[in-house]
Amino acid sequence: MATKEDYKLDSLPYYDKELENDTKLRDAAAKLIADELANSESRDLSGELGDDISTGFLTSSDLLRQEMERAGKGIQLDSFDASRYALAEPEVENVSEWKKSYNNAVIASEYQQLRSSNLDLLSALGANAWKLSNHTLDADARSLEQQSEQINNKIIDINRLRKSEQTKIGENLNTLEKSWGGLVSNNLELEVATIALEVELAQLAEREQQLRASLQ
Description:
Blueprint: H1 18-21, H2 23-39, H3 53-59, H4 62-73, H5 95-215
C-alpha cells in the first residue's frame, strides 16, 4: 500500500481551480482516487482496541449469562406474580391454611409499608436528587459544548491558516510561472534572432567570397 512518503504532494485545494473548471480533469482525478482505494488494504481496527471486557463480564455470572441467552432468543420475562400478596381466605378450615394466609397478610403489609416509606423518601428527597442530577447533566452538556466549540474553532483557524498559506504560495507560483514563461519567450526570441544573424552572417560571408572572386 502506498504511503504519504511515496508521493510528492503539490496540491493547493484552496487555490487550484482546475478541477472545478475542467470536468475531464475532475473525472480523471476521481478515477485515480477510486483505483487507489480499490487497491488499498482495509484495516481491521477491532484488534487494536484490545480485548472486549464485556464478554468476560457477561460470562462471569450464571444469571447474567442466562438473561443474555433469554434476550437473544426473544423470550419475554415472566409476568409479576402478585398471588403471594393476595389476602384470600383459606379454602380449607385448618391451622396450616390459616397460618399460610396470615403469612401472606404479613408479607403484603410489609410490602405496603416499604412502598409507603419509599414514596415518602421520594417525596422528600426525590425532587432535590432530580434537580442535582439535572444540574450535573447540564454541566456535562455545557462542558461538552465548550469542548466542541473549541475544537470547531481550532478547525476553522487551521483552515484559515491553510487557505492563507496556500493562497500566498499559489500567487507566488503564479508569479514564478509568468516569469518563467517570459524567460522562455525571451529565450525563443533570442534563439530566433541568433539563427537570423547566423543566416545573415553566412550570406555576408558568401557575398564576400563572391566579391573576392570577382576581383581576382
